[in-house]
Each structure stands twice: as C-alpha cells, then as structure tokens.
Amino acid sequence: MAPAPKFYSDCATTEVHWCREAPLLRPPLVRGKQDSLMSEPFRPYEKLVEITILGKKFQVPERNSLLRCFQFISPETIPYGRFCWNQECQYCRVSCQLPDDDESREMLSCKFIVMPGMEVTELSQELKWCLRSKLPSDLAVPK
C-alpha cells in the first residue's frame, strides 16, 4: 500500500502542494513589506540585538519573545522542547537582569520581548537541556 500524500507549503509562494514526500526546507530569509529582514516563525525584525545568557553573549532578532530568540540561537533543539508557547507549562521560566533594573526578575521567556543588553542569569532545566550545546561547558545539565 502506498503511503498517504503529505501536505506542505512552498516557501517561495503561497501555493499549497500535495506530494508523496514533503521536502524539509528551512524558510529562506526574505525581505518583508517594510523592507525588514524576517523569517518564519520569527516576528519581523530589522536588526539583531545583543543579550547575555549565563555569561555568554548572543545576537538575537529584535521584537521577538525571549523563547523565540532561544530558538534563533538553537533551531535544532528548542522546537523539540516541552514548551507550550502560551505560559501554561512554565518550562520556559528564566531570571533576567534588565538594563534599567537593579535586581534580577523571574519571567516566562514565551511572554517577554527581548531587550538589548538584557542578561539571562538563570534558566529552567528544560532550557538548559535545549541550549546545552550553545552555553558554557561548565554548566551542569542533568541527564
């Protein structure tokens, strides 16, 4: 018996296709309506901003949630984490020091829009596991 056709959308057009095997393509970086750089699943952005995660600096897209920025840093692991993306699971909890604050504060990375100069000082275990290859090697991640 032949496998059922799979559905996929062509990244270059809005056409929908049916085929036996869907290609696994990453959407290309495209110019948007306002000439800004963007790529799904990220919100439109024009530039990258610098943030610090556990002492390591990263360039991430402005105007995106912190969890989407983690996905930008590690696209091969974050989409497979146990994140609900709507604040119910609490797996994306972090502590951050914002540039204009004196104290670190806890927040859900799925709901907080990234700010230039912010410093992530603590990550949930799920985020540590998903970002383990991008973070300092002395970070203890349980198996």
Description:
This protein is mainly β. The chain has a domain at 42-130: Beta-grasp domain (Ubiquitin-like (UB roll)). The protein has helices spanning 66-73, 125-130, and strands at 6-9, 16-19, 30-31, 37-38, 48-53, 56-61, 93-97, 105-108, 119-123. Residues 5-36 have low confidence and may be disordered.
CATH superfamily of the domain at 42-130: Beta-grasp domain
Number of strands: 9
Mean pLDDT across all amino acids: 79
Q: Count up the helices.
A: 2
Quickly give the structural class: mainly beta
Query: What is the annotated CATH architecture of the domain at 42-130?
Result: Roll
CATH class of the domain at 42-130: Alpha Beta
Q: Show unreliable segments.
A: 5-36
Element order: H for helix, E for strand: EEEEEEHEEEH
Helical coverage, percent range: under 10%
- Strand order across the biggest sheet? 6-5-9-7-8
* Overall radius of gyration: 18 Å
Q: Characterize the biggest β-sheet.
A: 5 strands, mixed
Overall outline: globular
Q: What is the terminal-to-terminal distance?
A: 41 Å
Give a summary of the structure in a few sentences.
With 143 residues, this protein is mostly beta strands. The chain contains two helices and nine strands, in the order ββββββαβββα.
List keywords for this structure.
Ubiquitin-like (UB roll); mainly beta; 9 strands; 27% strand; 143 residues
Helix-strand blueprint:
Elements lengths: L5 E4 L6 E4 L10 E2 L5 E2 L9 E6 L2 E6 L4 H8 L19 E5 L7 E4 L10 E5 L1 H6 L13
Parallel strand pairs: 5-9
Antiparallel strand pairs: 1-2, 3-4, 5-6, 7-8, 7-9
